[in-house]
Design goal:
The structure holds two protein chains of two kinds.
Chain A (H helix, E strand, L loop, with lengths): L13 E10 L2 E11 L4 E6 L5 H8 L7 E6 L2 E2 L5 H6 L1 E5 L10 H5 L1 H5 L4 H14 L16 H13 L5 E5 L7 H17 L3 E5 L3 H7 L2 E6 L2 E6 L1 H5 L5 H26 L1
Parallel strand pairs in A: 3-8, 3-9, 6-7, 7-8
Antiparallel strand pairs in A: 1-2, 1-4, 4-5, 9-10
Chain B lengths: L1 H42 L1 H16 L2 H23 L8 H25 L3 H9 L4 H31 L12 H9 L3 H31 L2 H19 L9 E6 L2 H16 L4 E7 L1 H9 L5 E5 H8 L8 H16 L2 E9 L2 E6 H7 L4 H7 L4 E4 L8 H9 L5 E4 L2 H9 L5 E5 L3 H5 L2 E3 L11 E6 L7 H7 L8 H12 L7 H12 L6
Parallel strand pairs in B: 1-2, 6-7, 6-8
Antiparallel strand pairs in B: 3-10, 4-10, 5-8, 5-9
Classes of the chains: A alpha/beta, B alpha/beta.
Chain lengths: 267, 518
C-alpha cells in the first residue's frame, strides 16, 4: 500500500484548459479553466460582454479558441472535424434559428438526417421528441412561421436533442420569451435534463433563472471566471463584490416576495 | 407588305431556332459559372470585390463590341490549338456569340446570389453550423433554397438581357433573330426590322413568364409550378435544337451587311445551286470579320472590294492604278492566306463624294476641287468607318479639304441625311442605287485620291481549286457593269415596292444572261 495512491483523473464531460479568444485586437476571454462533470447542470452568468457566449461557442467549435484547448469526454475537440463534433452536441440559442423553408418535423430531424439515420427512424424520433417538448403531433407538418415564440423554442430544444447528444449547450435559450412561458420551459427542460441524464451548460443573464435551474453557477467578468459554486453558497455574502452585486438582486426580490406572502397569509 | 411578312414568317423557324439554342446555351453556361462565382464570393470576401467588379465591368462594354472582341481572341486560340493539338476550330458564329452572351448573363445572377446569401438571417446560418452541417451542406440545404427567390429574380433579368443581346450575334456570323434586324436595316425593309424586334421581345417575354412561374414555385414551395415551367423551357429548347435539313450544305457564301452584299451572296448561292451544289448564306458579317472568316475557312466564298483589302488587310497607304493593285492583291492573297481571287465582277463600289444635284448646281460644284473651295461652310456625312480609313487623310490632304462639321451615320441614314439637307455632302458608294434614287451627283476625283474598289470574288484556301465553285462563279466575271449593279441595288433600296435581295439577285442573273424564253 503506497502512501500516495496515483490520483485517478476523472473524465469530465466538458473541460476547458487555459482557453483564450480574441476578436481582432479585443481579447474576449483569457486563460479560462472550467470543468463540467457528466450529469451536471451549470449556468454561466455575468454582464453583457463578459465572454459568456464566446466561452460557450469554443466548446462546439463555433469559434476555435486561439489559446488553450477544449476536451469533450476527455478527448481534445481539435482531433475531429468541427461539424462531426457539433452533431454530437445539442445547441440551443436565443434567436432559435429554425430553418424557415423546412417543416417542424424536418427541422427536428435535421441532425439525424446528417448522421444518415433512416427516414423511418427519424420519423419515429420526431414523434417521440414532440411528446417530450409537449407539442401536439399535428405540429410536425407546420412551418416555423406558424408557431408562437414559445412553440418555436420547444422545437429548437427538440432539434438539439434529436440525435441523442449527451451534452447540451444553451445560449440564453429562454431569454426572448414572456415570463410565464420562460418559467414553464425552464422547469420542463430541467426535468428533461434529469430524465435523460444530460450534461447542460447554459449561458444566461437572468440570475434568478440560473439560481432556480442550475446545480452550479459560474460567474464571469471581463473574460475570466470570478466565482464558481453552488447557488446557495453564492447567494450568501460572497467575498467578491461583483458576485455579491449580481446575486443580491434575486435574493432581495425573493425576500420581498416572501414577506408579502407572509403578510397575505396573516391578513 | 404582305409578301414581306410572309417572307419573314418563312425564315422564322431557322432564326428563332438558332436564337433559342444560342440563348439557352449562354444562359446555361452563364448560370453555372455565375453560381460558382457567387459561392466563391460569398465564402471569401477577398474574392467578392474582384468578382462583382469584373462582372459589372463586362456589363459596361457594349454588347456588339463584346461580341466582336471575342472573334480575334478565338482566332488566336484556334491558331494556338492548331499548332499544339493539330486541330483548329471555327472562331466565327456560335462560339464567340456563346462566350460573349455568357459573360453578359453573369452579373445579375452573381449579384443577386451573393446578396441573397449574405443577407440571410445570421441566426439561421449559426443554426446550420450548430446542428453540424458542413459548409457545402449549409450551402445546398439552407443558403441556396433560402436565397432561391432572389437568385431566380437574377436569372430572369439575365434571360431577358441575353435574349435581347443575342440579336447582336448576327454580325459575327451567328444566325439569330438579329438577321431580321440587320438585313432589314440595310435594305430599308422596316417590316423585317420590326418583325425581328417583336419576335425577340415575344421570346423574352415568354421565357420571362415561364421563369416567373418557376420563381413563384420556388417562393411558395409549389413543386408543380417549378416542374411545369422547367418542362416547357426544356421542351422549347429541345424543339429549337432539332437538326434542320439546311445545315448539311457544302458551300457557305458570306456577305457583309449591306444591300449589294445580300444580293451578290444570293446570286452566288443561286449559281452554286445551278451547278448542283448546296449552299447556305452567312450574311450580315462585319466588314473586318468577313475576310478573317474566309481566311480561316469559316466561309467558302464572298465578294469583297480591292481597295478595302488593300487598305484594311494589306495595310497599304499608297494608291496604285487599278490593274496594278489587283495584280499585287491577287499574289499577296495567295501567298499570305492561300485565298483565291476568282475574278472581278466588272464594277467598282468605290468611295465617292456625292451631293444633291440642286445643291451642287447652286454652289457650282462638279469636282472635289470645286468642293474644297466651299468646304468651310459645308457639313460632310460619312458611314461609320470612313473617317477611320486611310482614304480620309489621303483625300483631305490631296484637296486641302476642311469641312465645317463631320458627322457619321449608319449608311441608310446617311442617304436620308443628304436628301433632307441635314448634311451637304456624303461619302457615297459608286454602285449604290440610292445615288440615282436620291438624284445625287458624284463629284469627280481629278487628283485620283480615292482607291479603286473593284468588286472581286474571293474563295477560301480549301476551295481555291474547287471545280464546281469555279464553274459557278465564271459566268459572273466581268459580267456586271456598274449601272446594272446600281439598278439591282435600287430595286431593293427603293421605298416603293422594294424587292427582296433574293429577287434582285434573280433580276441580276436574268440581266447577265437573258433567257431565251418562249
Amino acid at each position: 500500500m503506497s502512501a500516495n495512491p496515483p490520483a485517478i483523473e476523472r473524465v469530465r464531460a466538458i473541460e476547458l484548459r487555459g482557453v483564450g479568444h480574441a476578436y481582432g485586437a479585443v481579447r474576449v476571454i483569457h486563460d479560462l479553466d472550467l470543468a463540467v462533470e457528466a450529469g451536471e447542470f451549470v449556468a454561466i452568468v455575468g454582464e453583457s460582454g463578459s465572454g459568456k457566449t464566446t466561452t460557450l461557442k469554443t466548446i462546439n467549435r463555433l469559434l476555435d479558441p486561439d489559446a488553450g484547448e477544449v476536451l469533450i469526454d476527455g478527448v481534445p475537440t481539435r482531433v475531429q472535424p468541427a461539424h462531426l463534433l457539433r452533431r454530437r452536441i445539442g445547441y440551443v440559442f436565443q434567436r432559435i434559428g429554425l430553418f424557415p423553408h423546412l417543416t417542424v418535423a424536418e427541422n427536428i430531424g435535421v441532425t439525424p438526417k446528417l448522421l444518415g439515420w433512416s427516414s423511418t427512424t427519424i420519423a419515429a424520433r420526431v414523434v417521440e421528441l414532440l411528446d417530450l417538448v409537449n407539442l401536439p403531433q399535428t405540429f410536425s407538418a407546420r412551418q416555423p412561421a406558424e408557431l408562437s415564440g414559445g412553440q418555436r423554442q420547444r422545437v429548437g430544444v427538440a432539434r438539439a436533442l434529436a440525435a441523442r447528444p449527451s451534452i447540451m449547450l444553451m445560449d440564453e435559450p429562454f431569454g426572448a420569451l414572456d415570463p410565464v412561458t420562460r418559467d414553464a420551459l425552464g422547469s420542463e427542460y430541467r426535468r428533461l435534463h434529469e430524465r435523460m441524464r444530460l450534461t447542460t451548460l447554459m449561458v444566461t443573464h437572468d440570475v434568478l433563472e440560473a439560481v432556480l435551474l442550475a446545480d452550479r453557477i459560474v460567474v464571469m467578468r471581463s473574460g475570466s471566471i470570478v466565482a464558481d459554486g453552488q447557488p446557495r453558497d453564492l447567494l450568501n455574502d460572497h467575498p467578491d463584490e461583483t458576485v455579491r452585486a449580481l446575486m443580491d438582486m434575486p435574493r432581495r426580490q425573493a425576500l420581498r416576495v416572501a414577506a408579502m406572502l407572509e403578510e397575505s397569509v396573516r391578513g | 407588305m404582305d409578301d414581306r411578312v410572309a417572307a419573314a414568317w418563312q425564315q422564322l423557324p431557322l432564326f428563332l431556332g438558332e436564337h433559342v439554342v444560342l440563348s439557352a446555351a449562354a444562359l446555361g453556361l452563364g448560370l453555372t459559372l455565375s453560381l460558382l462565382c457567387a459561392v466563391a464570393a460569398v465564402r471569401n470576401r477577398y474574392v467578392r470585390w474582384p468578382v462583382l467588379t469584373l462582372a459589372s465591368l463586362v456589363q459596361t462594354i457594349p454588347g456588339l463590341a463584346l461580341l466582336a472582341l471575342f472573334y480575334p481572341l478565338l482566332l488566336a486560340l484556334s491558331a494556338l490549338s492548331e499548332t499544339v493539338f493539330g486541330r483548329s476550330f471555327s472562331a466565327l458564329g456560335f462560339l464567340p456569340s456563346l462566350l460573349a452572351l455568357t459573360l453578359y448573363s453573369m452579373l445579375p445572377v452573381i449579384r443577386n446570389g451573393v446578396t441573397g446569401i449574405l443577407t440571410l438571417d445570421p441566426a439561421i446560418v449559426e443554426a446550420a453550423r450548430g446542428v453540424g452541417m458542413t459548409d457545402w451542406q449549409r450551402l445546398v440545404r439552407i443558403e441556396f433554397p433560402l436565397a432561391a427567390p432572389m437568385l431566380m429574380a437574377g436569372v430572369r433579368t439575365a434571360a431577358v438581357w441575353v435574349i435581347g443581346a443575342a440579336t447582336l450575334s448576327t454580325p459575327v456570323g451567328q444566325t439569330s433573330l438579329g438577321n431580321y434586324i440587320f438585313a432589314g436595316l440595310q435594305v430599308q425593309n422596316w417590316v423585317s426590322v420590326l418583325f425581328g424586334c417583336v419576335a425577340a421581345a415575344a421570346l423574352a417575354l415568354i421565357v420571362d413568364q415561364l421563369l416567373a412561374l418557376i420563381e413563384s414555385g420556388v417562393v411558395r414551395r409549389r413543386p408543380v409550378r417549378i416542374t411545369v415551367g422547367a418542362l416547357v423551357l426544356v421542351a422549347g429548347v429541345a424543339l429549337a435544337a432539332m437538326p434542320r435539313s439546311d445545315e448539311t450544305a457544302d458551300y457557305v457564301v458570306g456577305a457583309k451587311s449591306f444591300t449589294e452584299q445580300y444580293i451578290l451572296s444570293a446570286l452566288i448561292a443561286d449559281r452554286i445551286a445551278a451547278e448542283g451544289g448546296e449552299a447556305t448564306r452567312r450574311t450580315g458579317l462585319g466588314s473586318a470579320i468577313a475576310f478573317t472568316a474566309l481566311a480561316a475557312g469559316d466561309i467558302d466564298v464572298y465578294v469583297d472590294y480591292s481597295g478595302t483589302l488593300w487598305a484594311n488587310v494589306m495595310r497599304r497607304a499608297d494608291v496604285p492604278a487599278r490593274t496594278r493593285l489587283l495584280a499585287e492583291l491577287q499574289s499577296w492573297l495567295a501567298r499570305e492566306h492561300g485565298v483565291g481571287l476568282l475574278g472581278a465582277l466588272g464594277f467598282e463600289n468605290a468611295y465617292v463624294l456625292a451631293m444633291r444635284r440642286d445643291r451642287a448646281a447652286g454652289l457650282g460644284i462638279a469636282s472635289i476641287d470645286d468642293l474644297a473651295a466651299h468646304a468651310r461652310d459645308l457639313t460632310v456625312g460619312a458611314d461609320l468607318e470612313f473617317f477611320a480609313r486611310p482614304e480620309w487623310p489621303a483625300l483631305r490632304d490631296a484637296y486641302g479639304l476642311d469641312f465645317a462639321e463631320r458627322r457619321e451615320f449608319q449608311s441608310t441614314f446617311m442617304y436620308d441625311a443628304v436628301a433632307t439637307g441635314e448634311v451637304d455632302v456624303i461619302t457615297a458608294f459608286s454602285s449604290d442605287g440610292r445615288i440615282a434614287a436620291n438624284d445625287l451627283v458624284v463629284l469627280t476625283d481629278p487628283r485620283g485620291a480615292f482607291l479603286p474598289y473593284d468588286a472581286i470574288v474571293l474563295v477560301s484556301a480549301e476551295r481555291a481549286d474547287d471545280p464546281l465553285l469555279r464553274r459557278a462563279v465564271a459566268p459572273l466575271v466581268d459580267a456586271i457593269p456598274v449601272e446594272m449593279m446600281r439598278e439591282a441595288n435600287h430595286l431593293v433600296d427603293r421605298s416603293v415596292n422594294p424587292l427582296s435581295p433574293t429577287a434582285a439577285a434573280r433580276w441580276l442573273s436574268d440581266s447577265i444572261a437573258p433567257r431565251s424564253g418562249p
